[in-house]
């Protein structure tokens, strides 16, 4: 297994959509293993989508594990939200958007029903609410070429973009 480089905003590849997985072969298993290794190597990381990583043709795969012992891995391949209810408006951060510096409240559904495939192509159909629902929605946004900043109202987005420019300047001074 090996770690994959993480893409950082404003890398245009973060706008790329994940490709549907049709064949669950050894290559897909390696990708998933490498995604989990990369995920677990990050500090305070709840999940990663393939479109956040330096893949030439990222697939529609996300790996999730926000358990305190990092022992509850969930891999979703070709995930879709088929039902949604309620609302939550909580702070989010992102491993690709300066996670130590940038956070914003994002409106998400409180409850969702998801269909997907596991890492071997077996069908999944489950419900999630609260933090798990927020996490899945965040990752599906990535697979659809969006980041959480894209969900902000224009004024809030401008404030965050200004802050990001300041963070980038500070980080360049440290180099």
Largest sheet: 5 strands, antiparallel
Which architecture name does CATH use? Answer: Alpha-Beta Complex
The CATH class designation is Alpha Beta
* End-to-end distance: 30 Å
Count of DSSP-assigned helices: 3
Beta-strand content estimate: 15-25%
Helix/sheet category: alpha+beta
Mean of residue pLDDT values: 96
CATH topology group: Peptide Deformylase
- The CATH superfamily label reads Peptide deformylase
Q: What Rg do the Cα atoms give?
A: 16 Å
- Spell the H/E element sequence: HEEEEEEEHH
- In one word, what is the shape? globular
- Total of domains: 1
Strand order of the largest sheet: 1-2-3-6-7
Poorly predicted ranges (pLDDT <50, ≥5 residues)?
none
- In helices, the fraction of residues equals 25-40%
The number of distinct β-strands equals 7
Notes on the protein architecture:
The chain has 175 residues and is of the alpha+beta class. Helix content is 29%, strand content 25%. It has a single domain (12-174), classed as Peptide deformylase (Peptide Deformylase), CATH 3.90.45.10. The strands form two sheets. The protein has a five-stranded antiparallel sheet with strand order 1-2-3-6-7. The longest helix is centred in the last third of the chain and has 21 residues, at 154-174. The radius of gyration is 16 Å and the shape is globular. The relative contact order is 0.17. The mean pLDDT is 96.
Please give a handful of descriptors for the protein shown.
175 residues, Peptide Deformylase, two-stranded antiparallel ribbon, alpha+beta, globular, 29% helix
């Amino acid at each position: 297994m090996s770690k994959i480089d993480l893409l950082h905003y404003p890398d245009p590849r973060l706008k790329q959509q994940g490709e549907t997985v049709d064949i669950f072969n050894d290559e897909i298993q390696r990708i998933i293993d490498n995604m989990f290794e990369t995920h677990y190597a990050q500090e305070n990381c709840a999940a990663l989508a393939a479109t956040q990583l330096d893949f030439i043709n990222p697939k529609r795969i996300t790996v999730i594990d926000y358990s305190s012992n990092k022992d509850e891995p969930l891999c979703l391949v070709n995930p879709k939200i088929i039902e949604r209810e309620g609302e939550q408006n909580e702070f989010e951060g992102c491993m690709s958007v300066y996670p130590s510096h940038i956070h914003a409240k994002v409106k998400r559904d409180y409850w969702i029903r998801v269909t997907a495939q596991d890492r071997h192509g077996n069908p999944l159909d489950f419900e999630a609410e609260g933090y798990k629902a927020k996490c899945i929605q965040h990752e599906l946004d990535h697979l659809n070429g969006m980041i959480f900043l894209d969900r902000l109202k224009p004024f809030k987005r401008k404030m965050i973009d200004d802050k990001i420019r300041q963070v980038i300047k500070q980080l360049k001074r440290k180099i």
